Amino acid sequence: MIFLCSSSQVPEAHSKGFELGEHALFAVRRQGEVFVYKNRCPHRGVPLEWQPDQFLDSSASLIQCATHGALFLIENGECVAGPCEGQSLTVIKSREDAEGIWVSLHRDADGV
Ligand code: FES
Q1: Which sequence spans correspond to the domains of the chain?
Q2: In this predicted model, what pLDDT tens digit does every residue of 50-72 receive, in sequence order?
Q3: Which residue among 41, 57, 62, 79 has the greatest number of ligand 1 atoms within 8 angstroms of its CB, and so is best to mutate?
Q4: What gap in Å lies between CA 9 and CA 77, rounded to an integer?
Q5: What is the fold of 2-103?
Q6: Does ligand 1 have an atom closer than 6 angstroms to the CB of 68?
Q7: How much is the pTM?
């Protein structure tokens, strides 16, 4: 897996964007757990954030696309309101350990 960042860079109820090579991702922490998605709205294929590292709505309880306001569940990326309702963000496999947050970008890179 690829090292993304230290755990402290994604505090509770906050989000953070990353560029790993050609991959644009973001991470969100909710109730202690980190969720990582591709930074791509399923509606128009554009990045989601309205300002750097701002991927959440004003209540910090949903992920929001800045372009047309689609709202996504933090836990599974499902769009629950907006023009792409029923579609989902692309989940990036991740795990967290004492060193920080790790992601898997390619299936065949697992275990490296
Ligand atoms: S591009 Fe995200 S809601 Fe339209």
Answers
A1: 2-103
A2: 899 999 999 999 999 999 999 99
A3: 41
A4: 21
A5: Rieske Iron-sulfur Protein (2.102.10)
A6: yes
A7: 0.93
